[in-house]
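Hi P.,

Sorry for the delay on this. The queue was packed all week, but I finally got your sequence through. Input first:
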Amino acid sequence: MKKLQEKYAKVLLNTCLKMKKNQKLFISADMEVIEFVRIVASEAYKLGIRDIYFDITDSHLKHEALKNLEIKELKKLQFWNKEKWNEYAKEGAAFLMLASEMPGLMSDIEPKKLSDITMYGYETRKEFDELRNKSMVPWCIAAVPTISWSKEVFPKSKNPIEDLWNEIFTICYINKRNPEEIWNKKITNLSNICEKLNSYKFIKLKYTNSLGTDFTIELPEKHIWASGESKLANGLSTIANFPTEEVFTSPTSDSANGIVYASKPLCYQDNLIENFWIKFEKGKAVECDAKKGKEVLSQLISSCKNSNRLGEVALVQYNSPISNSNLIFYETLYDENASCHLALGSSFPECIENGPKMSKEELKKNKLNDCNNHVDFMIGTEDLTIIGTTVNGKEIKIFENGNFSKCFK
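Then the structure:
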C-alpha cells in the first residue's frame, strides 16, 4: 500500500503539478490524512523542494467550533483565514489540495452559518483566486480517503479505507507500470475532443433525458472548450483535477432555462444533498427541491451574489472509468468525472478568448458569471442527449445515449 501511495504522490508532484527544484509548494489537507501528507512532503524534498507550507485543518475541530461559536468568533480561527494562500500564490508556489470528504459531519450545523463562514474563507483568499483565474497559479486537487468517507462508499466492507485507496489507484492508473504515459495520452485525447467542439462554434446546448431534464443554455460567442490540462501564462501546464475525464466551457450567465435533475448525490460542506432538481429561468435558479438536504441546497443557491447562476457546463462520457466502477463516491472530484455536470457559481476566464487577460468588467461584458463560489452537480445519465446549435443554425448531436456521438470519435 505505501509503495502505491508513494507512486501516487510522485504522479501528483511530477505529472500533475510538474514541480521544479526550489519551487515553493503549498499543501492543504485534513488532519485525518496526515500520513499521506508526510509521504508527499518526503517526495517533494527528494525533488529539491525546500519551502513547503502545510495548511492542515481538522474537520472535527471545525465542527465543534461551528456548534459553539458565533460567526464573529469563528473568523478568528485559522480554519477559515486563507491569507497565507495569497502570500504563496504571489511567490509562485504550486498548490496541492487534498480533498477528503466526511459525509454528514456537518448535518447538525445550520446551513446559513456554514455558508457564511465558508464565504468568509473565500473572501480572505481573493488574491489567490484572482491569480489562478489569470492562469498564474499551478494547482491540483486530488482525493485521499478518510475512514468516514470510505465507509460511505463501501458500507459492507471489512476494510473500507483500503478498498477506497485501491479504487483510487485503479482509476488514476497508479497500479499500472507507467501512469504518466497513460495520462499524457488521455489528456491528448481530451484536447482533440476540445478542438472538435471548438470548431463547431456552438451558440446553444439542449439537454434531455428520462429523469426529466429538459434544459437549454447558451454559450458566449468566443467561448473555448478546455480539458483537465490547465495551460498557464508561463507556457507550462498542469492537471488541475486528478483524475479528470471532462471537457468543459463556461456558458452565458443569463441564458439557462428549464429543469435539470441530479443523477448523483452532492456532498457539499460535508452535507449530503440527494435526489434533487433545479429549475432555471433567464439564467437564474428560481426553484429547487430535494428528498434529502433541501435546506442545504437552497442555501447553496443563495449563498452569495450570483451563486444562483451557472458558471460551467462539462461533458463526461457515461462509458468512462469512474462511471464504469458503478460506485457513488460522494466526492465531487470523482462523481463529476463520472457524469456530465453543471456548476453553480463562478465561470472560468480560460474558457473565453483572452479571458485570463481580461478584467472582471470585461468578463462580465462577455456574460461570464462572477461569484465567490463554484459547486459542481452531476446530471449525466445513460440516456442523456445533448444537441448543439451552431452559429449557422445547424443542429449537431453532441451526446447520444450518454456518450459522445460518432462526430466526436
